[in-house]
């Protein structure tokens, strides 16, 4: 931006902050344009005999009337009344009308319409029309009907212009206020979305950490028991622990990666990898079987591709249920996973024949753990139904139904 443009912006800002000063400059400009009329121009022949000559009193009246415009925005109705009073004195003392006082009269009419509400602006318009017609009726010569109509139309037009500009300013002010409210609402929605996203990430991290740490704990215990008498088996268990640990780190890095504002280009591809779904169920069951838990899978009905959200939720539900089985069902437990597809929904069942809910309640003080709460949240998020509890004949069961159609 050039210094000249910058100076103009600064000057305009200064005058915008001081409306009375800018109105005083306007009044001075009117005087500079109109005062020469008093001394350099002669009245038309015939009128010079009807009006008194210009003197110091006339000059003082013209200057006073015009400079009253300095208050046209701060005291518009009072300014209009003062100008009408000054013009009345000019008329009574038989001085000729001039450009400055007539322009001040029109500007004051505009100001009261543009800067006050409808009631006050209507009162100002009425005062202006009454004063105008009074001046026209006392004019020393016959003006004719056309002059009356033209002058009245001019004053009404100026008043209407002021009202329209006031309404336009109010409209733009409302638009700006609405935009500010929308911006604040957008910021609130963004904060709510971040909170929801962090809650989702917390559930994902819980599922990932709980499952993989449970697998690693079981494998570490098995390796400790057979370390002396079966070193090869212990090494295999340690290898499984290493693989599960790497998988856990990879999944956590991918999940937490969404919180990062700047990604490393070399690792961005891994962080943007898709979330696991039912297509990864075989790998999950293999990890569980490596711990020694016998797991069987049944798929009933024609397999359909669920929505990405349901796909992840169903996978995490199975992962959490098998993690609880590893923790609480006991060393000799078996588990079954059943997927049942219909035209309307997907039913996921995970059952085991272990010790049931006794150890879960004991570990959590008779309150459901975060994993069970996370299950309910995931299923409810997609409009599904979830039942958790002991199964007939012993053990524990989890049954969830996900609608396949929104």
Write a structural description.
The protein has 406 residues and is α+β, with helices and mostly antiparallel strands. Among the domains are: 3-143, no CATH class; 281-406, 2-Layer Sandwich (Heat Shock Protein 90). 65% of the residues lie in helices and 9% in strands. The protein has 13 helices and 5 strands. It has helices at residues 3-17, 19-40, 56-67, 76-92, 99-115, 118-137, 145-226, 231-256, 268-271, 281-290, 308-328, 358-363, 370-381, and strands spanning 294-300, 334-341, 345-352, 385-390, 396-403. It has a 5-stranded mixed beta sheet with strand order 1-2-3-5-4, with helices on one face. The radius of gyration is 44 Å and the shape is rod-shaped.
Average predicted local confidence, pLDDT: 80
Largest sheet: 5 strands, mixed
Q: Tell me the total number of β-strands.
A: 5
Cα-to-Cα separation, first versus last residue:
55 Å
| Net shape | rod-shaped
Please write the string of helix (H) and strand (E) elements: HHHHHHHHHHEHEEHHEE
Assign a percent range to the helix content: 55-70%
Strand order of the largest sheet: 1-2-3-5-4
Low-confidence stretches: 261-272, 361-368
Rg measurement, Å: 44 Å
Helix segment tally? 13
Q: How large a portion of the residues is in β-strands, by DSSP E?
A: 5-15%
Q: Please identify the structural class as seen in this structure.
A: alpha+beta
């Amino acid at each position: 931006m050039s210094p000249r443009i910058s100076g103009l912006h600064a000057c305009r800002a200064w005058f915008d902050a001081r409306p009375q000063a800018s109105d005083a400059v306007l009044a001075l400009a009117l005087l500079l344009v109109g005062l020469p009329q008093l001394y350099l121009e002669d009245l038309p022949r015939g009128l010079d005999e009807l009006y008194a000559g210009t003197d110091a009193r006339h000059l003082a009246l013209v200057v006073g009337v015009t400079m009253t415009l300095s208050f046209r925005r701060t005291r518009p109705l009072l300014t209009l009344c003062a100008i009408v009073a000054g013009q009345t004195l000019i008329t009574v003392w038989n001085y000729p009308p001039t450009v400055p006082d007539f322009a001040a009269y029109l500007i004051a009419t505009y100001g009261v319409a543009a800067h006050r509400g409808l009631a006050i602006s209507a009162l100002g318009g009425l005062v202006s029309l009454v004063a105008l017609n009074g001046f026209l009726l006392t004019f020393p010569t016959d003006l004719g009907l056309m002059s009356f109509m033209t002058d009245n139309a001019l004053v009404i037009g100026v008043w209407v212009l002021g009202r329209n500009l006031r309404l336009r300013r109010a409209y733009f002010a409302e638009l700006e206020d609405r935009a500010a409210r929308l911006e604040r609402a957008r910021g609130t929605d963004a904060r709510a979305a971040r909170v929801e996203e962090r809650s989702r990430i917390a559930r994902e991290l819980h599922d990932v950490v709980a499952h993989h740490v449970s697998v690693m704990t079981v494998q570490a215990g098995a390796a400790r028991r057979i370390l002396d008498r079966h070193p090869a088996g212990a090494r295999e268990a340690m290898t499984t622990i290493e693989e599960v640990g790497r998988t856990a780190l990879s999944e956590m890095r991918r999940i937490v990666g969404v919180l990062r504002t700047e990604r490393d280009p070399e690792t961005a591809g891994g962080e943007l990898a898709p979330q696991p779904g039912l297509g990864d169920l075989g790998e999950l069951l293999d990890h569980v079987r490596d711990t020694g838990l016998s797991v069987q899978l049944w798929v009933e009905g024609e397999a359909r591709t669920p929505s990405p959200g349901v796909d992840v939720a169903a996978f995490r539900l199975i992962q959490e249920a098998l993690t609880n089985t590893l923790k609480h069902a006991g060393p000799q437990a078996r588990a079954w996973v059943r997927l049942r597809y219909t035209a309307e929904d997907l039913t996921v069942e995970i059952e085991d024949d272990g010790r049931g809910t006794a150890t879960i309640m004991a570990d959590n003080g008779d309150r459901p753990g975060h994993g069970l709460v996370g299950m309910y949240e995931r299923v409810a998020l997609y409009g599904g139904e979830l039942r958790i509890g002991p199964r007939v004949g012993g053990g524990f069961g989890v049954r969830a139904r996900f609608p396949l159609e929104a």
